[in-house]
Amino acid sequence: MFEKFGELNSFEEINELAERLFNEQDFQSLKALAKENGIPADFASMYEKGDLPVLCDAQTAAIGKIDVEAAELKLEGIMEDWVEYVKGQILNSDDMAKKVRSKGKSLKGMIGNLLVWSFRHQKEVDKNILKAAGVKAGKVTLGIPGMGEAKKIIKEYYMGEQK
Fold first, then answer.
1. How many C-beta neighbours within 10 Å does residue 128 have?
2. Binning pLDDT at 50, 70 and 90, where does residue 160 land?
3. Could you read off the pLDDT of 119-155 as tens digits, one per residue?
4. Does residue 161 register a pLDDT over 90?
5. Closest-CA residue to 90 (of 158, 157, 44)
6. Are 20 and 61 in contact (CB under 8 A)?
7. What is the pLDDT of residues 80-117, one digit of tens each?
8. Between the CA atoms of 69, 72, 76 and 78, what dihedral angle is there, to the nearest 10 degrees?
9. Are 99 and 158 in contact (CB under 8 A)?
10. I need a labelling partner for 32 at 20 to 30 A (CA). Which of 89, 141, 148, 150 fits?
11. Cβ contact 70:90 at 8 Å
């Protein structure tokens, strides 16, 4: 992830690099830049033809970063729901899009924060539930945040807001 061009801090940085590559007529690198940053190939083609004034906007760059990270992490289940929530927030807020794109912020970090919360808030599962599930273990604990709590943790991670 981000092997060729490095982790770029903003959509502006992506567009500056894209413009340099365009001016050098290095269209292979332009396509590689788009792919590495999760920007659709058709955007790169349209930019190359002059049909788009810039390669991406804040939302496209942020969603692209999330998509690249999610593919690398091979997320499943509740983690996919968390990612979809982040994408929705990106589409609703330029500030969120810019924060998600910023260097040092990542899905690994966000999910890590959710896991820390989960481990700190484990509760013992009722024996009747274990029996109904056919679980023979003497003790089972679970600590997954509800969506409301997960949203707070996600927002705090990306936006730097405190509770």
1. 8
2. confident
3. 999 999 999 999 999 999 989 999 999 999 999 999 9
4. no
5. 158
6. no
7. 999 999 999 999 999 999 999 999 999 999 999 999 99
8. -20
9. yes
10. 89
11. no
Beta bridge partner(s), residue 124: 141
Residue 82 burial (CB count, 10 A): 22
Angle between helices 147-159 and 94-101 (to 10 degrees): 70
Residue written as tokens 């940053």? 37
Q: Which two tokens stand for residue 89?
A: 């927030």
**Cβ count near 100 (within 10 Å):** 28
Mean pLDDT computed over 39-68: 97
Joined together, the tokens standing for residue 21 give 């590559």
With 0-12 / 13-18 / 19 or more C-beta atoms within 10 angstroms meaning exposed / middle / buried, residue 61 is: buried
> Measured between alpha carbons, how far apart are the two ends of the chain, in Å?
32
Orientation of helix 94-101 relative to helix 11-23, angle to 10° = 70
Burial class (CB in 10 A: 0-12, 13-18, 19+), 142: exposed
